[in-house]
Amino acid sequence: MKLFDVYPLFDVNIVKGQGCKVWDDKGQEYLDLYGGHAVISIGHSHPHYIEKVTAQLQQIGFYSNSVVNKLQAELAERLGKASGYDDYQLFLINSGAEANENALKLASWKTGNVRVLSCEGAFHGRTSLAVEVTHNRKIVAPINDNHHVRFLPLNDLEPWIRELSRGGIAAVILECIQGVGGVQMATPEFAQKLAYACKRYGVPLIADEIQCGYGRSGKFFAHQWLGIRPDIITMAKGIANGFPMGAVLISPDFKPEYGQLGTTFGGNHLGCAAALATLDVMEGEGLVENARQVGEYLMEGIRNIGSSHIKDVRGRGLMIGIELDMPHKMVRKPLIRHEHCFTGAAGQNILRLLPPLCLTKAEADDFIERLIRVQPEED
Ligand SMILES: Cc1ncc(COP(=O)(O)O)c(C=O)c1O
Hints:
Number of strands: 15
Number of helices: 11
Order of helices and strands: EEEHHHEHEHEHEHEEEHHEEHEEEH
Strand order of the largest sheet: 4-10-9-8-7-5-6
Number of domains: 2
Low-confidence stretches: none
Radius of gyration: 20 Å
Shape: globular
CATH architecture of the largest domain: 3-Layer(aba) Sandwich
Distance between the termini: 30 Å
CATH class of the largest domain: Alpha Beta
Largest sheet: 7 strands, mixed
Structural class: alpha/beta
Bound molecules: pyridoxal-5'-phosphate
């Protein structure tokens, strides 16, 4: 059998990781400014994580959501404290798309409505509702194209207010820092006025924190830079440092009913152990603060390169976009091939940095040297 060939691959076989470094099968070391697509939060193969996940596996890896799982309750309590959302409720699933799928369902039940307002440039995942609220026609299958969604411009409040005032809206969904959209940031003024309008019209505001959340922006959630408190917050990626897990934080205004939501694998013992170990390290090593400090240092360093090929450097914490005057491929590929450094990308000409949150200033300097040295190459 062959793999269903949907990924254009770099010809590198990564077999080992440690902190912010990974190695291929030939023993070549790479600096990881990509974090396996923003997933590695505490660093690759952290010893505490390995110890906790191994110990859990030796006890039990999985049982069903029909019995008590105290690890879920422990995770809810720890996550509530770490994020400042003690009074919210936690629902666990396996991926980001599933988190948004469940968030949108909850909002639709609450309001009785079916229309959603989403942002131009948004990416919210690839399952049915999540892909429908994603602003990319190419990945929406006809069966998902159900005309529920209106895409409106980021930071341009007026059309949002107009749509909200017409009524019939189930939810507003927003990435406070767009990932796939090219590290575009909501302004505090836009976010606050939008949140206010949502409250006024009784429409749940969903913050998709799947990429920009979980410490990456230098606060626990990116929306906490903007002074808003969404009704529903979705998470995945960094939550369990690579173990597949998604989560929905749900305001106390939503009352659960038995059977309303459910999942086979979500919140399993092994996943919870991985998420708890991730939180241990994030707190013990101050990684949210590290993301803020090293992120500022790195952005400043990139700006100081003063290259005419760099049009803009933007972001928060360790979610950084470098807008180039050429296709990102011309830099991203030679960065891997010759400078042995992974980065992410967005749009046509943006390098997207999403390193583990334990990146050091020395590693940030090392990246800047590689970026200065790299010679752009035609495809
Ligand atoms: C902002 C955002 N939302 C949702 C998703 C979907 O997450 P998953 O791929 O885990 O389904 C992603 C994935 O990149 C994302 O960046």
